[in-house]
Amino acid sequence: MILTIVILLVVLLVLGLLFVPIQIFIDTDTGKYYAGLKGLAKASFEPDEKELLRIRLKVLFYERCFYPLTKSSKPKQPTRKKKTKPKKRIAFRKVLRLIRSFEVKRFALDMDTGDYVANAKMYPVFVLLNHYVASFHINFENRNRLVLDVRNRPYRILKTFINH
To answer: What's the distance, CA 113 to chain centroid?
Structure first.
């Protein structure tokens, strides 16, 4: 009886994790860059005074910062040569289906190339894109900004690999 309840709870937990949204967020104006599972885990990419990049990892109630671009102080062990397996190549169609499974919630681009002639040439294209695709703006004020909010769910990612 207890075993069936435990198995049922584990199955419900796994099914629940399949529907938790995955979010990738980039805002160059405010300096927010993060990726995470909504409410469970979040990895924020932050600038640091000492290093170029710091990653703040939050998983439920646990939080830790680490620096991925620093060299490890531990000496490397001599590596043994292992038999290499032939690498499996992922088909281009699967990669394309995987990219299509993501949903762009918000996209805004405000750009200045620094060249008035290039800005003037790009202005009609950006007006067209702004009208039909997303928020595209060209400016002549030396202001550049990108806001991107992309979401997906694990079951949609699995579905792209299982189907076809």
So the answer is: 26
